[in-house]
Amino acid sequence: MKLLEVDGLGQVSRVGLGTWQFGSREWGYGDDYASGTARAIVTRARELGVTLFDTAEVYGLGRSERILGEALGTERDQVVVASKLFPVAPFPPVARRREAGSARRLQLQKIPLYQVHMANPLVPDSVIMPGLLRLIDEGRIGAVGVSNYTLHRWQQADAALGRPVVSNQVQFSLARSAPLEELVPFAQRENRIVMAWSPLAQGLLGGRYGLDHRPTGVRASNALFGTENLRRITPLLDLLRATATRYDAKPAQVALAWLLALPQVVVIPGASSVEQLESNVAAADLDLDVESVAALTAAARAFAPVPAGRTLVDGLRERLRR
């Protein structure tokens, strides 16, 4: 497993494990997944050298944290567990109580990476960060990260914390490539990390879905699976499949390998099975040549998805035609 050295965290695996689906009923995996498969996935991830495990207090209303903490067992203190504070009234006393709740569910004395789940449009980071700095000083968290922050807001968080905010977790994939423009260069310059959530665009980049086969459940509401977006992304998916064939790999592995070819980027795909986890982790060993990376980057930048509002309207029109 390839690793990155991150200040305040130590060595972080380039491929981590996202655990939104642990205990979250909207994914439709059921109780058997939470009690059995999820634990098997975590165990296998550790065997394969994964050291980064991402969760949040809102995932399954705390169930994800609880399942992850139990699954890690005695190794929970030996890995980088990243959880998130949902920033509703994120004042220092509130943040303190919420961190304590996450730590209790994870069975940790110290949460290695504690992230602000999204930018609060009403409460500035000058209010949020002093409480998190206190948690660092008291040894209750190892480092502060943010999630879904613009570059400007990330820099504001830095200034408010008075020390580096080491990570920014954002939606990032071949289908959502905006972080290429500002966030990745900043992370490279400042020795931070960009954590790519939904690096496979909820399975779209696995090559399984298309106009004639669409997902159900939580994925069905994703604008990327709308008719117009599926048409627009076809050239990118064709290139992804062709590249996968050339490397004797799966399209999803190529999509992850493209992200891992970028400096200071780690990926945190979820996994519905041990086999999917193994496939994701294997992407760390797939080294794409410069030409392949450049071609995929150009295709990603050329893909301009239509917004969710238009996708909804198109969907209603399709239903009315039936």
- The residue-averaged pLDDT reads 89
| CATH level 1 class label of one domain | Alpha Beta
Using only CA atoms, what is the Rg? 19 Å
**Intertermini distance:** 49 Å
Instruction: Give the H and E element order.
Output: EEEHEHEHEHEHEHEHHHEHHH
Say which CATH homologous superfamily of one domain is assigned: NADP-dependent oxidoreductase domain
Instruction: Examine the coordinates and then state which fold CATH places here, giving the name of the CATH topology of one domain.
Output: TIM Barrel
Assigned CATH architecture of one domain? Alpha-Beta Barrel
Number of DSSP helices? 12
Helix/strand/pairing category = alpha/beta
The total of beta strands comes to 10
Q: What does the largest sheet look like?
A: 8 strands, parallel
Query: What proportion of the residues form beta strands (DSSP E)?
Result: 5-15%
Shape: globular
Order of the strands making up the biggest sheet: 3-4-5-6-7-8-9-10
Low-confidence stretches: none
Q: Which percent range fits the helix content?
A: 40-55%
